[in-house]
């Protein structure tokens, strides 16, 4: 059976690739006129560590989201309005990630750390919801799925997505009080997904 | 019959994907040295709501234009100079959208709202005209179209594109007096297109 | 016979698509704090006309260069070191176009117009040379070309590329004295190429 | 046998193409209000030569890394977690190249030249390590490789990657004392790779 979703996948791949690469634009280089000597440059670069952290974890998270996007679309052969809308929402939110990333990189070292971590974890709550919406829209109509898919296989994927939500919500909830712990929870989730993704058989 | 337009479609997809992702670069993050405390940061982020609005509606509009671009090129199998020129014009205008978007996001809250909304709706008038030109160039020469396409099918698409024009013109006309209403008209049109696009059968 | 150059073409397409879209980042939006009223905003936007001109003509030129890139690679089936190097040089120069474009858009209205127009036309001299190098490297070894290509067809393409060089050199030579005329010569060449490209048969 | 890695290659190509093109954004154009006359503009553009150098060598290095990426993935038919992780690391580091490039372009002319050259050569040490990791992960499990690959062919590629490491380490080691020589060593290595890459048979 012909796969109806090839073009939307290729377009989505493009948006993921651009969004992940644009993140680097938020690593700001000091101006030479502000720097008197090498030790001052070193100290400035060291102070910018939250921007390296933000770049690294946002890059990792978008990469993992791209892997998951593929895994879902490997199971989807036809599309309807809800699938299109949910996918558009995912692309919109993935593109947006660079904004809370920039906020995180600039304000993590300030008294506003709680707020920017809440915005940062908050966008992953929304992204998780939009992935759940995409899979819900596709899986409730077996006509859209890869022919021959079993109910057990559908259920396994559904569960896999659902358990991300409480983790992100927990991270979001503690953001204001324990910002570092909230970041750590998100990073742990991504490491867990990265490690477990290798075990799922079949082409990426 | 071989499709002559595969490469121009792939290139256009790339431009659409980049143009839609670059929009996020106009979400500006406040500088830490300008922010004294968290409530000041919150207030700054709230004041930036026109830039979130502009980002959201421009992202949605480019996404819908990309869907429409595909639908048209699914019917076009050969190209001539006018098709190439009209497509180049569409890509040029889609790339340009980020400029009136940036103007909208910075000046919607000022006394210049009417002007920037007129420029914003104005570019969609031009984009609509270039889509009409593309379809006119392709449809007047049946040699260029998908083999076996009926006159009725051609007419249905032609009508579909033409009725966008008066809507955009109406939005443009009232921009100076009722800027919010002009934006609302464009958004309504995109929602209508998004909802109706799911009903059109066939692969995207 | 298998085409060895598919991946280099896809990569080149990506670079062209990104380079053409990034041009829009040089359209700068005035800051709201510098603008007192709508007529001041209008006057600022009008004064920025060189940046609209530079964006428009650079976009057009990269689009036409992309079309030509495809036409050449439709004839090339194998690659050697020189083909790879010449193509890398083309991508490097096409990516660079945004820099003289930015200089043109900022200094065309100043006493430095001659210099920035010379730099702008100069990069097209270099791009033309690199296209000639690419085609020379491919065409002197018939093993690299599409099987069954005649000497007459090779010669026709060679001539087509060579006659661009004196035109660009003429534009470059008069840049300091007649900057507007130098720009006009380049634009005329691109219009000529755009009009004549439609007549060449075969898929793009 | 079906190639499992097609999508990861296409995504990687996209990231390489965007990363290489974004480098141009670090060529900064002087502001017209800072420039009094043409000779001042010329002198400013001349002073910016480290940014042209940095742009040129980073563009070349990413282009060569892309060529090598293809060569490796032509041999890889299946993926495991380590291959995915090593490839993700390569993409992360390639995207990051623009940051040490920007530092190099701004501080090469200052007393901090040693530091920024060390950071610049340092990232290529890391990239070399990640390529070695990718090839090590793929080659130690023959199941992942192109069917029919001989031990001799595997060994030839392994050697080819390993000898880059001491060269980069040497460049890194002398960065603080002889920054110009460290840059020259990297450039020589890339020229050597570029020249030798043409001799390797088979499609790119």
Question: What would you note in describing this structure?
Answer:
Chains A, B, C, D: Keywords: Ion channel, Ion transport, Membrane, Potassium, Potassium channel, Potassium transport, Transmembrane, Transmembrane helix, Transport. Chains A, B, C, D: Belongs to the TMEM175 family. Chains A, B, C, D: InterPro entries: TMEM175-like. Chains A, B, C, D: This is DUF1211 domain-containing protein. Chains A, B, C, D: It comes from Dyadobacter flavalbus. The structure is a homotetramer of 204-residue chains. Chain A is mainly alpha-helical. Chain A has one domain (6-197). Chain A is built from nine helices and no strands. Chain A has helices at residues 6-22, 38-47, 49-73, 81-96, 98-107, 113-139, 151-162, 164-174, 179-197. In chain A, α8 packs antiparallel against α9. Chain A is elongated. The interface between A and B is large, with 38 and 37 residues.
